[in-house]
Amino acid sequence: MFGKNYSRTGVSLVVLFAMIASLPIFAGCSTSNSGTESSVGTAQKNDKVQAVDQPPDSTTGRQSGASKKIAVIISTLNNPWFVVLGETARDRAKELGYDATLFDSQNDASKEASHFDNVVAGGYGAILFNPTDADGSVANVKRAKEAGIPVFCIDREISSTEAATAQLLSDNYTGCVELGKYFVETVGKTGKYVELLGLVGDNNTWNRSKGFHSVVDRYADLKMVAQQSADFDRNKALEVMESMLQSHGDIDAVFCGNDAMAMGAYQALLGAGKADQVKIFGYDGSDDVVKAVAEGKIAATVMQYPKLMATTAAEFSHEYLANGKRDFQQKIPVNVDLVNAKNIDKFTGYGKKE
Amino acid sequence: MLLQKSFARIAVCLVVVGGLIYFFPLVRIRKLDAANAHQQTASNSRPADSSKDTAVVDNAEFIEVLWRQRIPAAAKQAAYVNEVLALAASDGKAARTQYGRMVGLGGPSFLFLRGRGKVEDLNAEECALSIPGLNQRVVLEIGILVSNAVRDATGLVNVADFPNSQEFNQIAIELNNRCELEVIAPVRAQLAIGSVVEFVGCGEVDDDDGFRTLRLVPLQLKLLGAGESGQ
How far apart are CA A146 and CA A117, in angstroms? Predict the structure, then answer.
């Protein structure tokens, strides 16, 4: 009987203590302390896991100069263009003598943050990074910087001039100015068109769109009748284009923010029997679209150079880790080229012919 | 007896809870200054909380100062077009190296040039000039302007100063608009074949042969009278 009462008292005490102890946690939710603690917690857990196969350095385990590990974190490997970007960066880092690992963020900011937690905790010396979100990814880069890990952004920008060590960025705006000029040249100064935008949180999406519109909008009789995001995704572009064609069956052209969407749009137009009437414009210089330009299925694309960017980023990280270089230019535009029927002979997928 | 036991249990609980509250108070009263200082320290140590940098450049003010003060000052130092083209005629690579400005990896060489020329051909989009001492023409773009030449040729605008490259690209649009409205439009109607103009302009060449078809966006354009032209 007494035992029961004591156990009830004990349970009451435990419950009371738990309630009291939890109060500061709920109170702390109004500040962002909790987020920091949670990521620290994750890092600590990962430190323990990492210690199984690699002992951390004596201090933080993250003295970049001592590490021979490079992480390549890519926004998505569901697009061949990014596969080329990521694999080239990884392979070049390996050639330079590093243990390089490729991470796929699957266009998911939380997965990307988790990769950074693991990389920061895992004793990596540098990160070659293709972000998922221009604004949202800044925090991850800053976290790595705090841990003494240099981050080299490739292709996609983060909206910061101080978080990354350097950013190698395709000059998307200029590329789409050139594409816009060619669009007017081939479609004419009058007509109707639609636009498929990429991920709305990515600066590349808007630099491409604004570069294109800086030219095309100057011609009042070239009218954009619909504009919608298809997230740089081929399947989504197919769906969006099919839907657009139901209400805008009389368009003359479609401008797509990347080549994957251009291929999706082409499939939709093919299905609707309009592939010969509607001119398609893409962006990237991917293998399938370069072939489609050669075959006349797609009017033009813009060649980005993923191999050049990836290789240069890997070499920058080597300069940083092995040779102590620190004075990198913060943002480095990388030239792009218009690819159309006139110059297709010079190009192959992802670059120029050797 | 039962009542006494219950009172005893409650008393024990109260003592224990009291002890816990003493060591872990539900509310802490602090001076406001101290609390603010703590908050500041915490936020300084939490870069992850700030999703992006505050823009370091106010675009409207930046463009105004650039257009009204910095570009006019820099224009006085622009290279003379006849000197550049004379060198390019014999050594295009040397001309690019000496007078060109590259931005980033690959891409064209941007040129910031000044000179004087006679209008030889004219349409809505362009104005072809002959330059004294040269046997080639230079084209001034006087229609719709869409390039980055004005932004990138002067060397006064650096992409690294802009947290978001969209703002950097907006500079190109704004400068082109100003060139159209404030430089070209005021003299457009007076331009005629045979007239002589003085100009400062920005252009780009993709390769060493690019000088042969040099096109410039005028940043300054002045129609010279008969007494000024010297032609």
Answer: 12
